[in-house]
Amino acid sequence: MPIVTLEDRAVLRFTGPDAQRLLQDVLTPDLDGLSAGDVVAGALLTPQGKIMFDFVVARDSDTGFLIDIDAAYADDFVRRMTLYRLRAKLEMARADDLHVTAIWQEERPEGALRDTRFRSTETVYRLYAPRHERVTGSAGDYVKLRIANSVAELGADYPPSDAFPHDVLMDRNGGVSFKKGCFVGQEVVSRMQHRATARRRLVQVFASQDLPAGDIDITVDDRSIGTLGSRSGSEGLAIVRIDKAGAAIAAGKAIHAGDQPVDIRLADWTGLSFPTDLQASEA
Hints:
Elements: E1 3-5, E2 9-15, H1 19-26, E3 38-45, E4 51-59, E5 65-70, H2 71-85, E6 91-94, E7 99-104, E8 113-115, E9 124-129, H3 139-149, H4 186-195, E10 200-206, E11 217-220, E12 223-232, E13 235-241, H5 242-251, E14 255-257, E15 260-265
Parallel strand pairs: 3-8
Antiparallel strand pairs: 1-7, 2-5, 2-6, 3-4, 4-5, 7-9, 8-9, 10-13, 10-15, 11-12, 11-14, 12-13, 14-15
């Protein structure tokens, strides 16, 4: 039973009678339907529909929520949310008494919440509590788990204001709702959904040796079709143009990460496949 305290995460507490309304109106997920036993992916988008901040959200009480976010972006996120607060009655503050612990096993640990982003391997839970002393895994184990489940994170896999929710599978993992109505950037994201125009997608990358470090492009015929993100040994994640990747696969062309030949796959749980229309890939 791996247990890892995620030292790079911060917890924000949103409380008050208007907390749910504000978060529901501004953020991407449907919080009205969020189970008390789950955490769900979410994002705050730019007006152009790109991800400014990503996180997971959990209920904290009847009127409160916890937002679990990369600590490097936590304060900027609070400042941004303050712009949307207006006269809403709520408090926003860091919950420095809480640490984020990831636990993956079949049986739910006491007090833990199911992380609904993880759909391929073991069931993964998040525990928000004072530091959990029983740590049996490492941060590297958690990165490997994310790769196996195609779970992208801002910073590790893409920079702020660069990716749409579709690019990182939020349309597939419950991180964005197309039924709840307006949120910041909703018009652009809904148009992509209804017109099926998403061409960039998160894929798993497999090599025969350790993937190279640094800023590495995924290429076909020395032309970039995407960028390598998280990596663990010979496996990693990348956001690529799946139309161009599909054309390369159909034509039997090699795909590279830096100088290394690699295989790329779309996670089974997404229900996605690589297009094979060679003409469409030229667009």
